[in-house]
Amino acid sequence: MQATATSEIDFGNTKVAFESKSDSELRNSYLLFKAIGFPWLVKIGPPMVNAAFAVGLPIKGIIKATVFKQFCGGESIQDCEHTIDHLYQFHVGTILDYSVEGTENETDFDHTADEVIRTIHKAKNNPKIPFSVFKPTGVASFNVLAKVSAGEKLTAAEQQSFENARARFRKICKAAFDNHVRLFIDAEKSWIQAAIDGLVTEMMEAFNTREAIVYNTIQLYRHDRMQFLHHAYDEAVSKGYYLGLKLVRGAYMEIERERAAKMNYPDPIQKTKADADRDYDAALEFCVEHIDRISVCAGTHNENSSRLLARLMEEKGLPNNEPRIYFSQLFGMSDNISFNLAKLGYNVVKYLPYGPVKAVLPYLFRRAQENTSVQGQAGRELQLIDKEMRRRKKR
Ligand SMILES: Cc1cc2nc3c(=O)[nH]c(=O)nc-3n(C[C@H](O)[C@H](O)[C@H](O)COP(=O)(O)OP(=O)(O)OC[C@H]3O[C@@H](n4cnc5c(N)ncnc54)[C@H](O)[C@@H]3O)c2cc1C
């Protein structure tokens, strides 16, 4: 496909953005974003919901019909079928994201690894599902990853737990390799990330010999990550493997800053948002410049960065559907970016979280929190939905 002039991209085109939504779906999204735009509601929501589950109140139905419906595909892979097909009608791919969080035992880790492998089998030869994904703490102990990252000595049991985690990483990555499905590995908090980076680098070296199958995630809200990117590139070149990278700004800023202040070590996060933006865009530039070695996915809801990536592709003469470049947003958010890019032939995928309602609550709380705290995200969603509702009324 010939490159579209970047000037054709219009993220304000709400007709395209919400083509996939009926009037009533649009209205429900409007009410939901309106509710999570209230910081007090988002603050008292999580403890209230947890307490309600703890005392057995029948709250699951309410959550399922509201936030869960907006941000998740269902409780199982099968539940997600409808959404996968629906998104694909608009040339938007799906990443099945098994979003169970917060478990800390080996049986649950094995269960999650098996479920991730099921998503890989589902994605095999399926253009509707171009990637799989997993979150490292779904298959590895947080505490052990923290100790490994800090260079602390492990007990025999911890050493065993770490070896189990490595074996799970390998099993999942091998399944991705054997089934020819690209795999994202999410990035997490900075004090466990060194161990994760070590494991992912091992996997890339083993499985990315012919193309990028395994993708690491780089969080550009950290001030040390451009250096990390350059180092990762040099290592891939010197060892002869391909680098798969998902670029994000990062989801844990408040927690990172609080921990650094409390424990009195230098804050790993950039001083300002502008610094994070600068490095994010510089990382995009670096990846496109080295596209012969790097496959990249821009995991962002930022319109400027998304537009920049399209422009960089155009300048390099790459087609919009260049297979080594993807744009990705979360399901239920920033449809104006996803659907407008997809309409112009760019590769777009949505993370579609799924899992038992109670188990995905941490993910849902984060989305609600993000939509309140990230500069105007809920406001932006509301504005776009409002514009579209008005446009439809005038028809
Ligand atoms: C497909 C996809 C996959 C993702 N995967 C991961 C993942 O694996 N790991 C992960 O951590 N996150 C992940 N995220 C979340 C992501 O890191 C961001 O939290 C979220 O996308 C908001 O950033 P943005 O680029 O979309 O947009 P923006 O709204 O432009 O940026 C908001 C982000 O900027 C940063 N920021 C805000 N204020 C400041 C400040 N004062 N100083 C420094 N930085 C600041 C923060 O990271 C904040 O989240 C993913 C997001 C998407 C869309």
Give a verbal description of the structure.
There is one protein chain. By secondary structure, the chain is α/β, with parallel strands linked by helices. Helices cover 57% and strands 12% of the residues. It contains 18 helices and 8 strands. It has helices at 14-17, 23-36, 39-54, 60-65, 67-71, 77-89, 106-123, 136-139, 142-149, 156-179, 190-207, 225-239, 253-263, 273-289, 303-315, 335-343, 361-373, 377-394; strands at residues 92-98, 131-134, 182-185, 214-219, 243-248, 294-299, 325-330, 348-354. Strands 1-2-3-4-5-6-7-8 form an 8-stranded parallel β-barrel, surrounded by 8 helices. The longest helix has 24 residues, at 156-179. The chain starts with 13 loop residues before the first helix and ends with a helix. The model has no long low-confidence stretch (mean pLDDT 92). It binds flavin-adenine dinucleotide. Flavin-adenine dinucleotide binds at residues 186-187, 217, 219, 221, 248-253, 269-270, 272-273, 276, 299-302, 328-330, 351, 374.
